[in-house]
From TrEMBL:
Ranges annotated as spanning the membrane: 44-62, 69-91, 103-123
Protein name: Oxidoreductase
Alphabetical UniProt keywords: Cell membrane, Membrane, Transmembrane, Transmembrane helix
Superkingdom: Bacteria
Compartmental location: Cell membrane
Membrane topology: Multi-pass membrane protein
Protein family according to the UniProt entry: Belongs to the DoxX family.
Pfam families recorded: DoxX
InterPro entries: DoxX, DoxX-like_oxidoreductase
GO CC annotations on file: plasma membrane
Amino acid sequence: MSAGLLIIRLIVGLTFMGHGAQKLFGWFGGYGLKGTGGWMESIGFKPGVLMAALAGIAELLGGLLLASGVWFTLGAALIVITMLGAIPVHIKNGYWADKGGFEYPFILIAIAVGLALIGPGGYTL
């Protein structure tokens, strides 16, 4: 069971770290704070750069905590909070991700909550 939890934690956590790095630093094809902030302003999240920074920090830190198993519940909570902010952006498109819907953030919330309820398993820092 611990090995399975480790795999889920690493994949989800490292992916979130990557999304945070896209927003904060423009890594992995991201737009950095200025570009992400401009997009966030365009969809109503103001001030955009501050919102991009908060989302990026929550994703980077939440992913790190989830992947490492250190302060695991806080990491899961940061991921849930961030994805709760993403759902209103996508909800107008329905459920399915192929139509731009909220399926993906909703599933990530379920994974983070499920992990928080189960615990990080035996393989943690």
